[in-house]
Design a protein that fits this description.
There is one protein chain. By secondary structure, the protein is α+β, with helices and mostly antiparallel strands. It folds into two domains: 5-99 and 275-355, no CATH class; 116-261, C8orf32 fold. It contains seven helices and 22 strands. It has helices spanning 79-82, 127-131, 145-156, 163-177, 190-196, 201-214, 249-254, and strands spanning 5-8, 14-25, 31-39, 47-56, 61-64, 71-77, 89-99, 101-104, 179-180, 198-199, 219-226, 230-239, 243-247, 263-264, 269-273, 277-281, 285-289, 295-301, 307-324, 336-341, 344-349, 352-355. The strands form six sheets. It has a seven-stranded antiparallel beta sheet, with no helix packed on it. Strands 5-6-3-18 form a four-stranded antiparallel beta sheet. Strand 16 (277-281) and strand 17 (285-289) form a beta hairpin. The longest helix has 15 residues, at 163-177. The termini are far apart.
Length: 362
């Protein structure tokens, strides 16, 4: 049986996204290297991504994490590259996103009494299963004593259980019994969340995911960003042969009458799935990071210098047209990308925007 899934494209809405950072060095000429790391948006069940342009003020390199379906962007600026900049400067990348809606039709997943039917057994030898049922640092801990006790109680509730019934019970339980606390403070150890009685979106998701993994159900965080410093994290769990099911316990907590089990109606930009991953980086080597929702950066210097950065994400609705390739035999040559913004044709070529007459407009 295939996943009964309705995916909509928000009436084919397209958004031009510029994601970048402004760098504020305390002095010129003292930096020798500067390295940035950020998550890379990919097309998936939540979005379609088009025309990722990584050439704005430096070349961002796209890297794949071999163990899973995540990728990331890395930008390394050596002393020669930094010599081009004086004072504050901006580095970033752009892409076009078309967000999707998800509405899973569960009608065939239940019997005539409204109880969840059994789903296919998991392939416990699959890498997907192993990766998404294990402990993830101190953030997702399936064998935590409190989690194990709660999972046993919830599994036995109502006298029957299976994957879907348990996943839904955990969804209600976390939303109803934990509070939304300490927003935008990052992911915290699970033990701290349980002691405090809650956390923000990513941390409430950690509790939900820990409960599911405690019963051998693959589950993971979905990490997303939005324009104007907007961030969000929700969960998804896997059903064998049917796919990933989105679940948002935070939205359920804030709106008890809403339905966020198997549904997604937002326009966030998904940049990562799962937490606590190893990234192999230029000049640094292997780095283990729990949550890659913004930017990480490292810098080297000849003389002591302070570096601060400011992240910015802008989103502008566009009527998207296809890529127009510049006439060239050079495969690494820039391409021109056409957009309709505010009813006017604009063309992005390299770092600049041109109007139809070829005049730089920004």
């Amino acid at each position: 049986m295939l996943l009964a899934l309705s995916v909509g494209l928000h009436s084919q809405e397209y958004f031009l996204i510029n994601n970048g950072i402004t760098v504020y060095p305390s002095s010129d000429g003292d930096l020798t290297r500067l390295l940035f790391l950020t998550g890379c948006p990919e097309s998936n069940e939540y979005q379609d991504i088009y025309k990722l342009d990584c050439s704005s003020n430096g070349k961002w390199n796209k890297r794949q994490i071999q163990e899973n379906d995540n990728s990331y962007l890395e930008l390394g600026l050596d002393e020669n590259a930094l010599a081009k900049y004086t004072g504050d400067f901006y580095v970033g990348y752009s892409f076009v996103q078309s967000p999707k809606e998800i509405n899973i039709d569960f009608s065939d997943w239940k019997d005539s009494n409204g109880q969840w039917k059994d789903v296919p057994e998991y392939d416990k030898g699959a890498q997907l299963y192993k990766d998404n049922t294990k402990q993830s640092g101190d953030l997702v801990v399936p064998n935590n004593e409190t989690i194990k006790m709660l999972s046993d109680e919830l599994w036995e509730e109502n006298g029957y259980s299976n994957v879907m019934a348990y996943a839904e019970r955990c969804y209600y339980y976390v939303a109803q019994n934990y509070r939304y606390l300490n927003p935008n403070t990052g992911l915290h150890p699970l033990s701290e969340l349980l002691a405090n009685g809650g956390g923000d979106c990513g941390n409430l998701s950690s509790i939900y995911i820990s409960l599911l993994r405690a019963k051998g159900i693959p589950a993971r965080h979905v990490i997303a960003v939005g324009a104007n410093d907007n961030f969000h994290v929700w969960s998804e769990f896997y059903v064998q042969d049917r796919g990933w099911i989105p679940v948002d316990v935070t939205y359920k907590n804030g709106n008890p009458q809403g339905n966020y089990f198997g549904k997604y109606h937002e326009k966030f930009i998904v940049v990562q799935k799962g937490v606590v991953m190893d990234y192999r980086l230029l000049w640094v080597g292997n780095v283990n990071i729990g949550l890659l929702q913004g930017y990480y950066w490292w810098y080297w210097y000849k003389n002591p210098v302070n570096v601060s950065v400011e992240m910015s994400i802008t989103s502008q609705m566009v009527n998207y047209t296809d890529v127009v390739n510049v006439e060239t035999n050079e495969t690494d040559h820039p391409v021109a990308r056409k957009y309709i913004i505010d009813g006017q044709l604009v063309i992005r070529y390299g770092e600049h925007w041109y109007n139809a007459m070829g005049v730089i407009v920004r």
